Amino acid sequence: MAYHQLLNATVNYLEGERAHGRRHVNVDPAKLSVLFRPLPPMPVNPIAPAECQSMPELRAQALACTRCEHLVASRKQVVFGVGNEAADILFVGEAPGADEDARGEPFVDAAGELLTRMLKAMDLAREEVYITNILKCRPDTPNQRNDHRAPTADEMTACSDWLHRQIDFIQPKVIVALGKVAVGGLLEMENAPITKMRGTWHTYRGIPLMPTFHPAYLLHKETMQNKRAVWEDLLAVMEKTGLPISDKQRGYFLKH
Helices (DSSP H) in the chain: which residue ranges? Predict the structure, then answer.
């Protein structure tokens, strides 16, 4: 985890420098030599998923997960993920809500319906991408069963092995992080400034990552400006994955 965190931070820093026009950076030779030292042996993670050969096997393991006792006690079921297991685009949200917990599928509420329409505007169907969350269980809300809370950093860290294994199987070309919590969970940032980060490429486990607003945010702040912002993010994803883009699509949500 620390290795990937350091790698992502380095890549994101260098990409930021390049975006500001800088083409050369000075590196202390003594610090650079550290990269050539042998790495210490990795400790065995006692809660890592067992080895498996396919996504269905991984799914079966995840559905039986009892790692977080408080979530196990309150969930109806584990919400693993749906879609094309060889998809070019992986959409990652924060955690299941009540509807997802009941149906066992991510993004099936009003925000999910909006995500489906967003995909349709990209000339894609849900079956052509993969959709999941960082946290596979609905965050418990004691005494407020119909309420919603964001997952904690510890909960997302405890569940991250499942997402990492999903990524290993899918090998997407691009990851789209939906919302502030998902962006912060993936990039290990507290209070991720989504309004500043969206629209800018980052890297997660060596894969280009595009932060954008969560569909639920658009439902609450459904302005033409916000719609266009998200659409520009999706256009960048389409370009990155080589999807065709028509003039009509490029003009969505622009004032005429």
Answer: 2-19, 29-33, 55-63, 69-74, 98-103, 110-121, 153-170, 180-187, 194-197, 215-220, 224-241, 247-250
The DSSP H or E segment spanning 211 is strand 207-212
Please name which of 120, 127, 238 lies closest in space to residue 173, comparing C-alpha atoms. Answer: 238
91 pairs with which residues across the strands?
A: 131, 176
Beta strands in 15-95 (DSSP E): 82-83, 89-93
Domain ranges of the chain: 80-243
Report how far Cα 30 is from the mean position of its chain's Cα atoms. Answer: 36
CB-based contact 175:208 (threshold 8 Å): yes
252: phi then psi, degrees, rounded to nearest 5: -60, 135
What is d(CA 201, CA 239) in angstroms, rounded to the nearest whole number?
Answer: 12
220-241 per-position pLDDT tens digit: 998 999 999 999 999 999 999 9
Considering only CA atoms, which of 135, 139, 159, 158 is closest in space to residue 149? 139
- In angstroms, the CA 185 to CA 188 distance is 5
**3-state secondary structure at position 90:** strand
Note if the pTM is more than 0.85.
Answer: no
Q: How many CB atoms lie within 10 A of CB 59?
A: 17
The residues, any chain, with a CB within 8 Å of residue 57's CB and separated by 6 or more, are: none
Q: Give CA 144 to chain center in angstroms.
A: 27
In sequence order, what are the beta bridge partners of 176? 91, 210
**Closest by alpha carbon to 233, among 171, 175, 192, 189?**
175
To the question of domain 80-243 being in CATH 3.40.470.10, the answer is yes
Strand partners, 93: 133
Gyration radius of the chain over CA positions:
19
- Given a cut of 50, whether residue 47 has pLDDT beyond it is no
- Taking a C-beta distance cutoff of 8 angstroms, is the pair 103, 119 a contact? no
